[in-house]
Amino acid sequence: MGLKRRTRRCLNEVFQSGAITCLICIASVKRTQAVWSCVGCYCIFHIPCIQKWAKDSIFLVSSVTDEDFGKKEHPWPCPKCRYEYSPQQTPCRYYCYCGKEVDPAPDPWLLPHSCGQVCDREFKPPCGHRCLLLCHPGPCPPCPKMVSVSCLCGKAAPVPRRCSNKGWNCGKTCSRTLPCRIHTCTHTCHAGVCEPCPRVSVQKCVCGRSSAQRQCASPLWHCDQACGRPLPCGNHTCERVCHAGACGECPRAGNRTCPCGKSKCALPCTADVPTCGDTCDKKLDCGLHSCSMRCHKGPCETCRQAVTKQCRCERHTKRMPCHKEYLCDSKCNKTRSCNRHPCKRKCCPGNCPPCDLSCGRMLGCRNHKCPSVCHPGSCYPCPEVVQVKCACGSTSLSVPCGREKSTKPPRCKELCRNPPSCHHPSRERHRCHFGTCPVCKQVCQLPLPGCTHLCPAPCHDQVLLKSNQRAPLAGPWEQPAAPAFECKALPCPPCQVPIPTACLGEHEVSPVQCHARGPFSCGRPCGRTLTCSNHSCSLELSKVLTGSAGLWTAGKECEHCEESCSKPRPSGCPHPCTLPCHRGNCPPCTQMIRQRCHCKITNLYIECLKLTAADEEARKLLTSCKNQCPKQLRCGHRCKELCHAGDCVENCSQRVKVKCPCKRIKKEENLVLCDDICKKLQRKYAEAELEAFEKRQKGKRKKNRRNTEVEAEEGAWLKYRKYLLVPVCGILLAVGAFYLLQVN
């Protein structure tokens, strides 16, 4: 049913599209041309083409098989399905599909070659109903009538069903008596005659002498023993092998003739018939002469009479025994009916047989050679039908051989069966096609290296990349070739899945991409207390190796405190701590402070610790040089006390001589004044001092000029040495610090 439906649908589509082809002339069938349809395969042919095909087929068959050419009627086959037709069934008129209308007029609103009337053809297999569709090509559909029928075995009540599918099974056991008349059918409800009984039973042969285990379905069997029963004559026994019924009369009873048949005699069955002694006179095998022997038993001998015989080609004669045929050795030079090959048959009578060689010429399809017997004229079209299949082979289209290259493959509705070229177990669902499959767009789903997540990127096993390998150009006249592409498998991208991760200092939890997972820096300063316990790490947060010291203790990666000690100094101590930043209290300051004594003459060096720790009285004693105070009292005498702080006590008790202002006159009086002599001496001294001063001033000018020149020559290093030593020392300190850091 499904095959008929597909055939009818295919024919309708082909007719509507105008793509149907005559397999004889390999030309398209137009709606205005007269056609004929095969009843076996429903293939369409032009009327002139099928008439010529039928005529040539009958001619070829009769020329090969008939000795008397053209006197027998041979059938001719359909070019496609080889359904045979008699010569009387050769089409001579153009009918519609249903056969009601002769030469149907083309109507653009109807199917080509259709009359447009109701088909009214009887369904096959016949059911009593007729097709109600309009005149159509191909087979009629199954009968759609509803009939009331019983089951196949006839036990169930009638049920309404489609006439085309009216046979149904009730599911009960058949139980009809089998031909063995012993057992019943054990199969479920079925149509037709029950199957032979499959059981085994003891059965006798036809003559009843032997018994054997045999199938109930074959009760009649013959043993190998001769019958052996006495015949009615009483002299002979039946020689027939195991048989049923009477043995019959004795084959030697009644009137019998001699071997030559000329004399008759009535003898008992025990006596043999004698020969008559006359000439045999039976016709020999040659048909011309009679047997010359006396009446004898058995076949006659071959004819040995010598006669003059003419050969079959009537060119030569020869005297020879009658039973032999005379064939000369001359070969026929005539050309056979194919007009290609000579006869070459020995002693040919003139009616040369048709050429029995194979034609072997290449057919129009260019794929096969003509399989027919060698013939005149052009060869028939290739009878082969080629299946143009889709890529998977499940959908095919039958086309005449030779048109498979120009025929577009059918569109397949099946899914592509090509194995995947990537790591996926199956490809994406797409239709069957030729060529390479499209690039896989499924998610990769491969486990990423270093984590348990799956790759979310599209499949990248077959990625087209531009090839960098290009052939060098032969010269500037050669055009560069188009860039070549090659398929490569790319590695999976890094895992982008966010993983909640705590920063190195556990300040915050942020999502970090899986491929970069692990403690990360949040950008904040480390903040861990350095080993000095005074400062914290100011670097960006780094990983700290926690140990017994605790989580907040600085690790090896933290910076080392390079600052000086910044702890507050004891009151009064102006010196910074000599140690770098350290834990605990600073050590006592042991530096010496240069302090002037109270009299401002002597520089004293005192330990800073003693100076800052002393009270007011002790500080006064420490800053005293223990010498006599050099200050003068108002009276002009020196203070008698040791070096002390504050003003001297005005308690001078020393008796002294008072001099005049020029200090020439000395008297123990309260006031002594200079006299005239003192004044004259003062004037002389003043003039002498003035002259001496002027002389000294002149000498100093010369000496200062010489000192300035010496200083200009020798003072460069002394002037700039502190500026040179400071950067050199700084560079040396930086190099030493860098070396220590590298070692740590």
TrEMBL record:
Residues 22-82 form the RING-type domain. CDD domains: NF-X1-zinc-finger (cd06008), RING-CH-C4HC3_NFXL1 (cd16697). GO terms for cellular component: nucleus. It comes from the Eukaryota. The chain crosses the membrane at residues 723-741. PROSITE patterns: ZF_PHD_1, ZF_RING_2. InterPro entries: NFX1_fam (IPR034078), Zinc_finger_PHD-type_CS (IPR019786), Znf_NFX1 (IPR000967), Znf_RING (IPR001841). GO terms for molecular function: DNA-binding transcription factor activity, RNA polymerase II-specific; RNA polymerase II transcription regulatory region sequence-specific DNA binding; zinc ion binding. Pfam families: zf-NF-X1. The keyword Transferase does not apply. Keywords: Membrane, Metal-binding, Repeat, Transmembrane, Transmembrane helix, Zinc, Zinc-finger. Belongs to the NFX1 family. This is RING-type domain-containing protein. It comes from Pygocentrus nattereri (Red-bellied piranha). The lineage of its organism: Eukaryota, Metazoa, Chordata, Craniata, Vertebrata. The gene is NFXL1.
